[in-house]
Amino acid sequence: MGLTRRQFLKWAGVTGVGAVVFNGCRVPDHEIQVQSPVELPEDLVTGRDNYYATVAQVGSGSEGLLVRVMEGRAKKVEGNPDYPLNTGKHHIRSEAMLQATYHPDRIKSPMVRIAKGGPFRAIGWPDALERLTKILGDADPANVLLATGPVRGKLADVTKLFAKDYGAQALGFDPIDQHVLRTAIKNIYDQDVLPDFDIAHADFIMSFGADFLGTWIDPTHYMRGYGEFRQGEDRAERGHLVHVDSRFSVTAAAADEWKYVNPGTEGLLALSMAHTIVTEKLGDAGAARALTGGADNHLSSFSADKVASQIGMSADAITNLAHKFAGTRGRALAIGGGSAGAHTNGVFNLTAIYALNYLVGSVNVPGGVIFNPAGDQSQITGAPIRDWKAALDAMRSGDIKVLLVRDANVVHGLSKQLKVTEALDKLDTIVSFSSFLDETTARADLILPGHTPFEEWGTDTPDVGPGYRTVAFQQPVINRFRDTMAFGDVLIRTASELGHAMPWESMRDAVRAAARDLHSTNRGSVTQPTFEEFWKRSLERGGWWDQGDTVSGTPTPPVLPRAAVKAQIAGDAKVFPLHLVPFEGHAIGTGQYAHLPWAQAVPDPITTVVWTTWVELNPKTAESLNVKQDDVVTLESATGDFISVPVYVNPATPPDVASVPIGQGHEQFTTYAAGRGSNVLDILAQAEDSDTGSLAWASTRVRLTKTNVRVGLPKLEGIEEPRQLPGEPVIVVFRPGEEDDSHS
Amino acid sequence: MATQTKPQSATDRSTAFKWSMVIDLDRCTGCEACVVACQSENNVPINEESAFIEGRAFEWIRLERYWEGEWPDIKARFIPVLCQHCENAPCEPVCPVYATYHNNEGLNVQVYNRCVGTRYCGANCPYHARQFNFWEPVWPEDLRHQLNPDVTVRTRGVMEKCSMCIQRIRRATRSKTPSDIPDGAFNPACVQACPTSAMTFGNLNNPESKVSKLQNDERRYHMFEHLGTAPTTLYLKQVDTHGA
Amino acid sequence: MNNNTLIKVMVPAIGLSVALVVAVVGYFVLQSWWSSPPAVLGFGDGPTQPIAFPHTTHVTDAGIDCQFCHRKVTTDEAATIPAVAQCLFCHDFGKIDGTKSTSDTAAAELAKLFDDSGEPQPVNWIRVHRVPDHVQFVHAPHIQNGVSCTTCHGDVASMQVVEQVRNLKMRDCVDCHRDNNAPTDCATCHY
C-alpha cells in the first residue's frame, strides 16, 4: 500500500480541498487497525483458527461436531469424525445453528413486559433473576408448568430435578412426538430406549412410513449406513430398499421400490406379510411359534387375499414382498415410523411392522435392529397431545397459573383448534427462556434468553445411540455473543435461591459430575489416570463411548394381535376426497428451525420449493380439480378449519393425496420466519393414537377449493433448465438370482 | 493466451496435483448437506425468497431433481451439480479479461478482481455452474461474524462459482509435496459434509488415490460427455434394480 | 515594460508553471499508482503508532528474534502481533529489574499500556503493511521457503518507526515469484 490514509490526509489537508475530495476514498479505520489484546490464550491468537468438539441435538438426532473458531467467532460447523453416530458428517440444521448464534433478531438481553400487552423493556440479569425467583416464590408450585422442547442429557437431569424439588409439573413439547414408536418398541422388544438400525450391514430394508433418509429421528446417522448399504466396498451385493409410504419422500426417491398403501394400513400389510411368512414357513420357526402363540391360524384374518383391497395392493404383490423379505440372502430389516405411526392405530401399525424382524432373525444382530443400553439416557421427550390438551384445560380452569417455557413454541406447534392463545391469556405469568421471540415467547411477561448450543455446557445421551453406551459432551465453543444465560444455569441458581440447592453449582459443574462417573468406569474410548486428564481428553474428542457396553440377547417375541385395529380417518371421503399427508420440513423441521435463513433457503429435495408452504397434488388430480401449478387453493378439513396454499403439481403424489409440509405459518419468530406460508397443523383433526394419546397427524381428510389467486412459487426448479440427458445417470441391473422371478 | 494457460513459471506443482471429484449417484439421497456446507464455507450470499422468484439464487453446488415415469411407476433422480472444472472449459476462452482460466492443478479458477462482469462465461457454461452478482451481497451485521475470512466476499458485478474450496487446498498443500498429503487428508466442504459419502475428492496424479481408482469404475460417466468439455468431475451412475 | 512584453513573458511563464504543476501532480499520482509515492513530504514515513515501539531497541539492542513476538509466522497466514501480556513478560516492573525499561521515554510509553486503574489495555496498532484487496497473503510458505523477513519488510531491526519499504503491489509480488520460481498461478493468492 503506497499511500496510507493518514499520510494522504496529512498532505491533502494542506490543500484543504484534498481533504474533502479524498475523504470518500478512505479506508475504514477498522481495516488499518491491528489490535493487541491484553491476554492472548493460545486459542485466541489473531488470524488463527481452532477447532472445538461439541454436540448438537438436531431434532431427535445427535451430532458430534467440530466447530471452527477464529478470533472468538464460530465460522464453520464440521462433523466430528470420532463421534459414533455421524462420524464426520453433518446435517443442514447443525450448520444452520451458526446462524442462530449470529442471528440479527436474537434476543439481546433479558426483557420484562412493562404492562400486560405492553412493550418489552430490557433489564439486567440480576434484576431478571430476582424477578424469576419472586414469581416462583410467590406462586404455588402446584400451579406452575415447566414446558421445554425435547431435552436430553445433563440439562434434562437439571430440569427434572428443578421441577421435582420445586414441585412443578414438567412437560416436554414436540409437535410430532415419538411416543407411538417408543411404545411399539417397548411392546415388541421390551426395550426402554429406541434401538439402532444397522443399515450398513442389512441387505434388504423394508421401511414403512419412516422417512429415515430425510427427517425421521437421526437422518445423518442413517445416511451414513445407507451409503454403505448401496455401495459399501466390502459388500457382496448392493442392498435393496423397499419404502412403503403415503407420500413420495426422499426415502421413497432413494428406494428401489416405492409402494403406496392406503394410509393407516401399514400394520395390516406387515401382518399380511407375516401371515405369508408363517404359513409358508419361510422364516424363523421359533419366532413364528412365539408370535402366533403356537396357533397355525392365528394370523389367518390377515391373509393376503382378505386384506389386499383394504391395503390397496394386489394379493400377489403382498406375497411377493413377503417372499422377497423372508428370502433375502443375508439380513432383512423392517423399519417403521413417521406416517405409519401417525394414525389412531399407530401403535398397532408399528408393533406389527417391528414384529417382522423376529421372523427373519434380525433382532439384536448385525444388519438388523440393534438395542441400545439404557444406562445414561435421560431425557424429556415431547409429551403426547393428550397431556397437552389436559395442560391447556388446566390453564383455562386456573390450575396452572404460571408457565415457564423454553423452546416449546406451543402457540405454533399446537393446532389453533385447541385455542392455545386463549389458554395462555388466562395465565398470571409466562416466563420464557428462549433465545428468539417466537409466538409463545412473544406472549411472555419475562424473558430470560438462553444460550445457543454453541455457547453452553451440556451432555447428550443420544435418543438413538449407536448400539453401545455413548455420552457426548457439549462445551461452549465461543463466549456468549449476546447478554444471555444458559437455561440450566438459570435453573440451578434459581433452585438455590428458592432454598433447594442442586448438587451442582453450574451446568459446567453438572457436566463435570457426569464426566467423573464415566472416568471412574476406567474403560471406553477415553481412559486416563487422573480426572483432569480425562476431562480434557474427552472434551477434545467430543465425548466418551464404550463399544464394549452393549445389550445382549434377544427377547421372546410377544403374541401378535388376531384382529386388525382400523385407522379412523377424520372426514367423509365423499365430502373430503383428499387424504392430507403432512410431512416435516426438510430443513426447518416442524418449525423450530424456520428462523434460520439457510434452513429456509435450502430447496425441498422433491419439489425444490423454498421459503413457503405448498400443497402437492398429482397432475391428474390437479387437472380434475381444474387447478394448475401456482394456483392458490384452500384446504379445508372436517373441523371447518382451512389454510390457503399454492399448488405444486408433483407427478409422484398419489391421486387421492394432498401433501403439505409442516413448519411454516409463523406469525412471529424473526423476520426470516414471520408471515411465511401457512401452518398445516391448524387444520389437522386432533385425533389421537388410541394407546399413547399422541397426535395422529396423518389421519385427516380435506377438500380443496380453488381461489382466484395465483402466486409465483419460489423454487429452485426452473431457474436453470434441466440439463441432464434423460436416463443417463442410471444403469439397470439384475439382482443376482432374480432374473427368473421378475414379474414386472 | 488465456485459453490454454500454463503459467510460464510452471513449477513441479503442475505435475504434482490434479484435483478431481467423483460423485456416486447411487449413494446420493438428495439431502443437500453439501449445499449448505458450501454456502457456509464460501460466503455464498443468503438466498432470500425474491432471489428464487427472480431466478437469481446462488448455489455453487445445487441439487437437481429429475422425474422419470408417471405415477405409480415414478422415479426421482437427484444429481448434485457444481462446476465440473472442465479440462476444455467453454467458459475460459470467452472471457475478454482472462478472469477465468485453468490452472496447473486442474482447477478452473475465477479471479474476482479481474472479472469485469461481461457474463460471457456464464452464458457459455453448459452446466450453469456460474452465478453473477447482480447486486451487492448483503448480510445482516450480526451474521457477518460467521463469514469465512479465508474467502473473498464478492462484490456486485463479478461472476462466481465453485472453487473446489481452493482455500482448503492452499492451506493443506502449502509447502508440501504430494507424498506429504495422504489421500483424503482434506476435503472441500461439500465432500466433508456428505452423509452418505457419495462424494470423493482427491489427487488424480496420485495413482493410489480413491478418485484415481474410481476413474475406472464401470458406472462412470461425465456430464455432457458429447460436448467435449472434458470435465474433471466424474459421476458414477445410479443403479436401478430390474423389476423394481 | 509595455503590455506586449508582459504578455510575451507572462503567458509562457503561466503556461510553464501550469505544465510543471500538472507534471508534478501527474508524476506523483502515477508513481503512487504503479509503485509507491515518492518519499517526500512525509510520504515514506511509517505511521505514528499509539505507542512508540522502537524495533531497534528490541531487535538490535536486546537481540530478540522476530519470531519471539511474531509467533505464528512460520506456520500460519498471519505473522500475528503479540498480546500486551507478552510485553509484560519483560516489562513487568514488579518482577523484573527492568534495566532496559527504566529510561524516562520508555516508562512514559509503557504507561500508555495501562488505564487509570492500572489495568492493561488492548493496543490498537496502525497497520503498516497492507496488501491490496482480494489478496490472500500467507506468511508461512515464504518463511518456510527461505525468504527472510527483511526481503519484504526491510531492515526493521534498525527502524525506530516501522515504515513500508516495498510497494507490495502485484507486480512486486509477481516479479519476486518469477525470480524464485514460485507459483504465479492467479489462484495462488486470489481466491
If you had to describe this structure to a student in words, what would you say it looks like?
The complex is a heterotrimer of chains A (744), B (244) and C (191). By secondary structure, chain A is an alpha/beta fold. Chain A folds into 4 domains: 1-33, no CATH class; 111-173 and 383-546, Rossmann fold (3-Layer(aba) Sandwich), CATH 3.40.50.740; 179-370, Dimethylsulfoxide Reductase, domain 2, CATH 3.40.228.10; 578-710, Barwin-like endoglucanases (Beta Barrel), CATH 2.40.40. In chain A, the strands form 7 sheets. Chain A has a 7-stranded mixed beta sheet with strand order 6-5-19-18-17-7-9, with helices on both faces. A 6-stranded mixed beta sheet of chain A has the order 24-26-25-28-23-27. In chain A, helix 7 (219-231) links the parallel strand 11 and strand 12 (240-244). In chain A, helix 9 (266-279) packs antiparallel against helix 11. Chain A is globular. Chain B is an alpha+beta fold. Chain B is globular. Chain B has helices at residues 13-16, 33-41, 49-53, 120-124, 166-173, 189-193, 210-214; strands spanning 19-24, 62-70, 73-81, 100-102, 108-110, 131-132, 159-160, 199-203, 220-221, 233-236, 238-241. Chain C folds into 3 domains: 1-34; 45-81 and 125-191, no CATH class; 85-122, no CATH class. Chain C has helices at 3-34, 55-61, 66-69, 84-91, 104-111, 139-144, 149-153, 170-179; one strand at 123-126. The interface between A and B is large, with 94 and 78 residues.
List descriptors:
heterotrimer, A: 744 residues, alpha/beta, Rossmann fold, Dimethylsulfoxide Reductase, domain 2, 4 domains, seven-stranded mixed sheet, six-stranded mixed sheet, 21 helices, disordered N terminus, disordered C terminus, B: 244 residues, alpha+beta, Alpha-Beta Plaits, four-stranded mixed sheet, two-stranded antiparallel sheet, 7 helices, 17% helix, globular
